[in-house]
Amino acid sequence: MPTKPSSPFLVFWITLGLLPGWAGAQDSPGYWSQSTWQDPERGFLWYAPPKAAASPAPAPKPLAAMTNRELGAEIERMLSVAVETQSVDAVRDYLQVQQFAMDRASRFSDVFRRTVWSHPDLDYSLRGRPTNAMALTAYDAERTQRRQTASAQLAASHGLFFFFRSDCPYCHQLAPILKLYERTYGVEVFAVSLDGGTLPDFPHARADNGMATRLAIGAVPAIYLADKRSGQLQPLGFGVLSLEEIVNRVHVLTQTVPGQEY
């Protein structure tokens, strides 16, 4: 049976290569049968646009180029891999990265101390209590002398209020310590009884006239530092204190500002 000749126009266009879509359809029979709506990247006019090539995975960043935060994240990632896979290679890789981080931290520590050595203004031990054993002995001796001197100089301008109860065992323990402070440094101690009783070391204690209520004293023994010139009172401490603690607190409250000797 004779074959019907192709349309001369069709032959003409194929010859000129202006129907690539039609020619491609002959190579891929399923192209035109696919739905454009199911493949949004598929062309639907004369040809299918080429899909963009997938970008290659970035090369791993060298450990030395990582920031501290990036290195920490990498250590956490490799630790998770090592714990989950339980493989020798994963554990080895994790340990290598961890060792790198430890070496970096050691170098920083070394640079830190060298910087402090060469910049005395950044050495905290020169601003307060020293760390050297021999310097510490000299510092403590000088500080003790300075604090004792402060207490002795305060005798003319300051005094201590000692609030107590005669049935309080802690008040009985603190009373001889306060009496020793009074004799040693000359700072007068005014004993105030909240229940009208007395103590052996303060037989002439005065009964409270409402002062404890105004100061809202709820616990005894209580010690307040009083400025005789201004009448200002400030708490020195509550409970049993040693002689050294009393001397130290008097010095801090009268001779220093917050943060100076902390």
Automatic annotation (TrEMBL):
<dbReference type="Pfam" id="PF13728">
    <property type="entry name" value="TraF"/>
</dbReference>
<dbReference type="InterPro" id="IPR039555">
    <property type="entry name" value="TraF/TrbB"/>
</dbReference>
<protein>
    <submittedName>
        <fullName>Conjugal transfer pilus assembly protein TraF</fullName>
    </submittedName>
</protein>
<dbReference type="InterPro" id="IPR036249">
    <property type="entry name" value="Thioredoxin-like_sf"/>
</dbReference>
